[in-house]
Model the fold of this input.
Amino acid sequence: MAVARILVVDDEVHLRTLVRPYLEADGYEVLEAGDGPSALASIEHDNIDLAIIDVMLPGFDGIELVKRVRETNDLPIILLTARREEGDRIAGLRLGADDYVTKPFSVPELVARVGANLRRKMTTGDATEEPLVMGDIEVEVGARVVTVKGREVDLTRREFDLLVALMRRPNRVISRTELLNAAWPSTYYVEKTVDVHLAGLRKKLGDALRVSSVRGVGYRLESS
Done:
């Protein structure tokens, strides 16, 4: 089995030096970058499996880096953000980041999140499963392909997993906690994360996605 290659992107050398041995002890190959442009070049040319990206970077910041990466690459991305910078976390998630860790953080927790996100990447569903169809939306779970009226729609991994969770239980209220467990297993998130990603789904799928919010509980996907 190939060793997963992790890119640590932070302009603080001491942080990269702190994180590297923990990742290597878990069997990962570690590459480093100290700014946005060099990180993007590494992602484009070095077969990176997962990137840990600090929001505050020279060249261009981590939010812009996530945006540029998501134009061509669906690798898992973990953002490093300041504890009070909720806006950065929300912006990063909306652009396609998969996870975030707030500074200061526990390095063992960060390494655990790396493992959880890599495992999630390898979980592609059963290729023999029948497509999920609801109105104009069709989902091929094994191939992870979503079409609306025959047109393929590009979703992030988390958006896809949330959509599948909803479509497997139409006309039933699903709590935010259940949706978190469906899309972010083995990691801790606040429930607002579901709201952010569902907003992204609504924007991409438009009127084809008929999801109603049940106040204080969760969401329901209407089949008709």
